[in-house]
Amino acid sequence: MSGVVVSADRSSGMVATVKMGNQVNLIDESGAITGEDTGPTPMDYIMSALGSCTVITLHMYAQRKNWPLERAEVTLEQRTLSTTESALAAGDKRTLISKTLQLTGDLTAEQIARLKDISSRCPIQKTLEAGVVVQTTLI
């Protein structure tokens, strides 16, 4: 299990402190949700995890194949699907993350198609698509 510790106290408002190993980061909500916008939102962290995992996976694969991938860029957008879009019962919500790839390099059409396929195999995307079980323990 990875050692991520997140804490917040009454005086911090919507700001949470995230400790990951030797690194400390802040998470906040936008002013629209009564945060102060002093850091990325929790959803920003999920989206950045997916995006960074995607580009790293693409570069690792291209390097193994000795393909000329110079740059991989991923643009991510997230929205909640309506009940009719997701074919779920009323009140159930699903999130759609749209992922747009931009690949730069002297790549063939076949290489580009393969990289698109590989982009969906990064560990973070696999985890999100499989669903996550969260077990909470109170101490």
UniProtKB/TrEMBL annotation:
InterPro entries: KH_dom-like_a/b, OsmC/Ohr_fam, OsmC/Ohrsf
Entry-linked Pfam families: OsmC
Superkingdom of the organism of origin: Bacteria
Descriptive protein name: OsmC family protein
Species assigned in the record: Adhaeribacter swui
